[in-house]
Design brief:
alpha/beta, globular, cytoplasm, schiff base, Aldolase_TIM, Thiazole synthase
Length: about 260
């Protein structure tokens, strides 16, 4: 079965996207990403050197663009102008690379998205030729607005970035998924493998995570667990779960022809 994730016209075999921050060193970063099977890795341009700081260790030496799709993101940006400026720099550093992850934060405590500034930045970036994957609130109306303006994917949070609280509002996610014609990926809040599986069982097209892997006691082993969780959650979604039956049972063994009946 060919069940590729397609974003901005390109197919990917893995539906798990991973971040590159919070690891103890680049060696652990590469080992965890290899274990995850991820093909798309996101990089915070304001925090990670991908060539803008000559003479410092370069992440691209560990995660070469010919092997991974580098997804520059705007972590740390609180205005549309800062986010647009950051992604234009990333495009220069990555030789015209168009696929980007937009996030415009509302405050440093919750890291919740500032949706007015997110919508403003998304509109500018789409018109400027970027393929925009956008971190957003789990608001079906605003998610649809982002899709309608031409974003390549919408990425509603499951819970606050780095919280590990899992999916707090599955109903809103389902509303977003049911109306979307672009990929919907859970971004932020995943804490363990079961959270990733639930996201996929709900019908999400993929999951993006960083802290859940990087802050695990064994990041490489957790990356492997997340890979399996995303795969099994996707298979369960495609298989279609049995209907829930309240206040009744359905025995799995035949009831006719029993001894003594």
């Amino acid at each position: 079965m060919n069940d590729s994730l397609v974003i901005a016209g390109k197919s990917y075999g893995s539906r798990l996207l991973v971040g590159t921050g919070k690891y103890k060193d680049f060696d652990e970063t590469r080992a965890a990403i290899d274990a995850s099977g991820a093909e798309i890795v996101t990089v915070a341009i304001r925090r990670t050197n991908i060539g803008q700081n000559p003479g410092e260790p370069n992440l691209l030496d560990v995660l070469p663009p010919e092997r991974f799709t580098i997804l520059p993101n705007t972590a740390g940006c609180y205005t549309a102008d800062d986010a647009v400026r950051t992604l234009r720099l990333a495009r220069e550093l990555l030789d015209g690379h168009a696929l980007v992850k937009l996030e415009v934060l509302g405050d440093p405590k919750t890291l919740f998205p500032n949706m007015p500034e997110t919508l403003k930045a998304a509109e500018i970036l789409v018109k400027d030729g970027f393929d925009v994957m956008v971190y957003c609130a789990d608001d079906p109306i605003q998610a649809k607005m982002l899709e309608d303006m031409g974003c390549a994917a919408v990425m509603p949070l499951a819970s606050l970035i780095g919280s590990g609280m899992g999916i707090l509002n599955p109903w809103n996610l389902r509303l977003i998924i049911d109306q979307a014609s672009v990929p919907v990926l859970v971004d932020a809040g995943v804490g363990t493998a079961s959270d990733a599986a639930i996201a996929m069982e709900l019908g999400c097209d993929g999951v993006l995570m960083n802290t859940a892997i990087a802050h695990a006691q064994n990041p490489v082993l957790m990356a492997s667990a997340m890979k399996k969780a995303v795969e099994c959650g996707r298979e369960a979604f495609l298989a279609g779960r049995m209907p829930r039956k309240f206040y009744s049972a359905d025995p799995s063994s035949p009831t006719s022809g029993l001894i003594g009946s």
